[in-house]
Write a structure and sequence with these properties.
- The structure is a homodimer of 155-residue chains.
- With 155 residues, the first copy, chain A, is mainly alpha-helical.
- The first copy, chain A, has a domain of 89 residues: Arc Repressor Mutant, subunit A (Orthogonal Bundle), CATH 1.10.10.10.
- Helices cover 63% and strands 8% of the residues of chain A.
- In chain A, β2 and β3 form a beta hairpin.
- Chain A is globular, with a radius of gyration of 19 Å.
- The N and C termini of chain A lie far apart (41 Å).
- At the A-B interface, α1, α2, α3, α5 and α6 of A face α1, α2, α3, α5 and α6 of B.
- The first copy, chain A, binds a DNA duplex (30 and 30 nucleotides) through α1 and α4.
Chain lengths: 155, 155
DNA sequence: ATACAGTATATGTATATACATATATTAAAA
DNA sequence: TTTTAATATATGTATATACATATACTGTAT
């Protein structure tokens, strides 16, 4: 049975809101689908989506502390501490103590920049195919509403 | 430094695509933000977003196999096998062997229906606040483009 | 200068996620 | 009918995620 053949018939709560339109489920579902697509391409260079994101921020934007990264990525800082481990282990980033010695300053290594450079055309391929399938207008709308959603969830 | 003060200045790849507009990063970021909001409400009834989603499908749509759930949720079936564990351990679902004895049929228990009923108004609160903050039109657009994105990622 | 409050990160624990692989069962082929 | 291919789920392993709590450091008040 294909996914599209599954119908959750009785899915209206009393006031008319549909559970099948749960914002959280919809977002997580789409995030899984898209992550699978990106991960599948990036696998050949040994990176995952999350790792590529972190690397891209560091390579394009320069060294950042864990706190800065976690705010930018809307990730708990304890999550980020752990997300950095595989990158450090593989020699793609370096973690140093900052001037404020409570902080850790994360910088890409030469190997990290190289890995990012290898991954970039693969990323670009998936990104472009997705934009093309969605259409420019829908894709732009998607990215805009995602940004709004992040802000709306936070205040 | 606030997240909005962080600027990834040099973020255009040669052909003009911006890394900061990575579809995957945007989706994952928004999924984290929204999940945090829903989880924060659902915590008082001991459910997480993922668990609430699964419960809602079973309660509103009836028993489903792991395969059916995994297709509907765009989740790897091995992930679903594991997602069910906490729900089973807490007595909210029952897992039985189907007529096709390779399959497992997942059904909500009475406790599961009760837990879902308790969670529903909490879910509704977060959902409505989000819709209100985004505006009906933006929210509808979001849910539509998310659906499109799932489809686009899959073919 | 010292005590105390606040901040940045780390660790313990639990769930979420997926790939590679193994197992069990069904369906198809010979 | 026996063999073989396909399907559904489970397990091993690794990463992603966040909360509660602990630790280390900074800044402030006295």
């Amino acid at each position: 049975m294909a996914a599209k053949d599954i119908h959750i018939s009785d899915n209206l709560v009393p006031n008319g809101l549909a559970l099948s339109k749960c914002t959280c489920m919809g977002l997580r579902k789409a995030a899984r689908a898209v992550t699978q697509a990106f991960d599948s391409e990036l696998r050949s260079v040994g990176l995952r989506s999350t790792q590529f994101s972190i690397l891209s921020i560091l390579v394009m934007g320069g060294a950042k502390t864990i706190g800065e990264l976690s705010k930018y990525l809307v990730t708990d800082s304890t999550t980020l501490t752990r997300n950095l481990r595989p990158l450090e282990r593989d020699g793609l980033i370096a973690i140093a103590t900052g001037e404020d010695r409570r902080t850790r300053v994360i910088a890409p290594t030469a190997a990290g920049e190289e890995s990012f450079a290898k991954a970039l055309p693969l990323w670009q391929g998936v990104q472009e195919r997705l934009i093309q399938k969605l259409g420019d207008s829908n894709w732009n709308t998607l990215l805009e509403t995602l940004d709004m959603t992040v802000k709306a969830s936070q205040d």
